[in-house]
Design a protein that fits this description.
Number of helices: 14
Number of domains: 2
Oligomer: single chain
CATH superfamily of the largest domain: HUPs
Number of strands: 15
Strand content: 15-25%
Structural class: alpha/beta
Order of helices and strands: EEHEHHEHHEHEEHEHHEHEEHEHEHEEH
Catalytic activity: riboflavin + ATP = FMN + ADP + H(+); FMN + ATP + H(+) = FAD + diphosphate
Keywords: ATP-binding, FAD, Flavoprotein, FMN, Kinase, Nucleotide-binding, Nucleotidyltransferase, Transferase
EC number: 2.7.1.26, 2.7.7.2
Shape: globular
Enzyme class: transferase
Helix content: 25-40%
Largest sheet: 7 strands, mixed
GO molecular function, one term: riboflavin kinase activity
Length: about 425
C-alpha cells in the first residue's frame, strides 16, 4: 500500500496525482474514523471491485476530521492550526492506515481538510477524481455526503453518474443495524454500578421509550456510525462500541513518568502522555490490553518518513515500523491490563493534581519497563466507576480485585 499526502492550495484546489497511465481506479472517500464495520465493508468492496476490473483500489481519507474543522471554525472564527487536539477523534491516522493496509488497498490519499476545500462543489470534486485519478467507480456507504454544504448525497451523486456515464456509483448497504436515538447534547457520564452497563432502553416498552427519548431531547443517528460509537464510549458502554467497531477500541500514546505511587503499593502502571491518539472513554476502571509498540522516537521517525511535508504529493510505501507484528493476538508485547481513566480521587487532595490521566497496570508477573515507549491501550469492558478510597490499603485490595476481573475478561477473549 502506498500513501500520498495532499494539501489543498489557498483556493482549496488539490493537485491530484496521476496514479497510473494505464490503469483506472476504484475510489472510496471518507474520514473512516474508527474504521468500524460499515467502513470495513466499503473498503473491502472497493478492493474487490478493483481486483475484478484490474484497477487500482484507492481510498481518499480526510484529516483532520471535517466535523472538527467546522466546529472549531464556528466557535473561534478561524480554522484550527496544524496539530490542534481533536478530543472527539476515535482513531489516529496511523491506526486507520494500519487497518486499510490489512484490507489490501493499493493507495491511500490523505487530504488535509480545509475550509477552502470544503467550499468546492461535489460535482467539481468528482470531476477531478475522474480526470486526474481515472476513477471508473465510486464506492460509498448509503448515508455518504460530500461537497459544499454536504449537498452531494447518494441520490445526487447517482444522478450525476448516470447523466455523465463516466463513472459508476456503487452503494454499500449496511447490515441491519438500523437507527438508534441518542441525546442531541450529552456529557460523558460514568456508570454508577460495577460491570459493563446495559442499554437503558433495552427493557423499556414502546411508550416508555417514547417518553425517555423525549426527556433526553434525542436525535436519530445510524447505529453503525462513528457518532453513535463515540456516544457509547462516553457512557462506558465499551462492549457495545466494540461490537459496532468490529474490533476493540483503543488509544495510543507515549509512556511517561507519573507520581509512581503504584509502585509503592505493588501495582506499577504505565502513564500515558497527553494528548492521546484516539478517543478517551468516560472516567472509570476498565479491563483491556496494554501493547508495547516500541521506542517512541523510532515510531515518530517512521511517521515522519511517510508524512514529511517535503514529501507532499509523492507516493511513499506504507510502513508500520514493526508495529503490526506487536499487535498480533499472541504477541509477546501484549499483556492483559486493568486501565484507570480519571483524576486519582484517592490521592489528588494531597498532591493538588486534578488532571485527567490514563494509567494501565499490566496483569503479569514480568517486570515491564516502558518509559519512552509508544503503547496502545485497548478496552474490553467497563469494571467500575472511579471511587475515593479511605486508605492505600483499601485501594490495594480493590486493585487486586480489578486485576482478577481483568484476567477473567481477557482470558475469555483469548478462548
Amino acid at each position: 500500500m502506498h500513501i500520498i499526502q495532499l494539501v489543498p492550495d489557498v483556493s482549496g484546489t488539490v493537485a491530484w496525482p496521476t496514479l497510473s497511465t494505464s490503469r483506472k481506479s476504484v475510489v472510496t472517500v471518507g474520514v473512516f474514523d474508527g474504521v468500524h464495520r460499515g467502513h470495513q465493508a466499503v473498503l473491502r468492496r472497493t478492493v474487490e471491485l478493483a481486483r475484478r476490473h484490474k484497477c487500482l483500489s484507492v481510498a481518499i481519507m480526510f484529516d483532520p476530521r471535517p466535523a472538527f474543522v467546522h466546529a472549531y471554525a464556528e466557535a473561534n472564527g478561524v480554522a484550527p492550526q496544524d496539530g490542534a487536539p481533536d478530543s472527539g477523534k476515535l482513531t489516529g491516522v496511523d491506526e486507520r492506515l494500519r487497518m486499510m493496509e490489512e484490507i489490501g488497498l493499493d493507495f491511500v490519499l490523505v487530504v488535509h481538510y480545509t475550509l477552502e476545500f470544503a467550499d468546492k462543489s461535489f460535482r467539481f470534486f468528482l470531476g477531478q477524481l475522474v480526470g486526474k485519478l481515472g476513477m471508473r467507480a465510486l464506492v460509498l456507504g448509503e448515508d455518504a455526503r460530500m461537497g459544499a454544504h454536504n449537498e452531494g448525497d447518494i441520490r445526487k451523486i447517482g444522478t450525476l453518474a448516470e447523466a455523465t456515464g463516466v463513472f459508476e456509483l456503487v452503494v454499500v448497504q449496511e447490515h441491519g443495524d438500523g437507527h438508534v436515538r441518542i441525546p442531541a447534547r450529552y456529557e460523558p457520564t460514568s456508570p454508577e454500578g460495577r460491570g459493563e452497563p446495559a442499554d437503558p432502553m433495552a427493557s423499556m416498552s414502546k411508550a416508555e421509550r417514547r417518553a425517555y427519548t423525549k426527556k433526553i431531547g434525542s436525535r436519530e443517528v445510524r447505529a453503525l456510525s462513528s457518532t453513535n460509537i463515540r456516544y457509547l464510549l462516553s457512557q462506558g458502554r465499551v462492549q457495545d462500541a466494540n461490537t459496532l467497531l468490529g474490533h476493540r477500541h483503543g488509544v495510543e500514546g507515549t509512556v511517561v513518568h507519573g507520581e509512581e505511587r503504584g509502585r509503592t503499593i505493588g501495582f506499577p502502571t504505565a502513564n500515558l502522555e497527553q494528548p492521546l491518539d484516539g478517543y478517551l472513554p468516560v472516567d472509570g476502571v476498565y479491563a483491556g490490553w496494554l501493547i508495547d509498540l516500541g521506542d517512541a522516537d523510532a515510531y515518530r521517525r517512521t511517521q515522519e518518513k511517510m508524512f514529511d511535508p517535503a514529501e507532499e504529493g509523492v507516493s511513499v510505501p506504507y510502513e508500520s515500523g514493526g508495529v503490526k507484528s506487536r499487535l498480533a493476538s499472541h504477541s509477546p508485547y501484549r499483556w492483559p491490563a486493568a486501565i484507570s481513566i480519571g483524576t486519582k480521587p484517592t490521592f489528588n487532595e494531597e498532591t493538588g493534581v486534578d488532571g485527567r490521566v490514563l494509567e494501565a497496570y499490566a496483569v503479569t508477573d514480568d517486570w515491564i519497563e516502558l518509559y519512552g515507549h509508544r503503547v496502545r491501550v485497548e478496552f474490553s469492558g467497563f469494571l467500575r466507576p472511579q471511587t475515593r478510597f479511605d486508605s492505600a490499603e483499601a485501594l490495594t485490595a480493590e486493585l487486586a480485585r480489578n486485576a482478577q476481573e481483568t484476567r477473567a475478561i481477557t482470558d475469555a477473549e483469548r478462548d
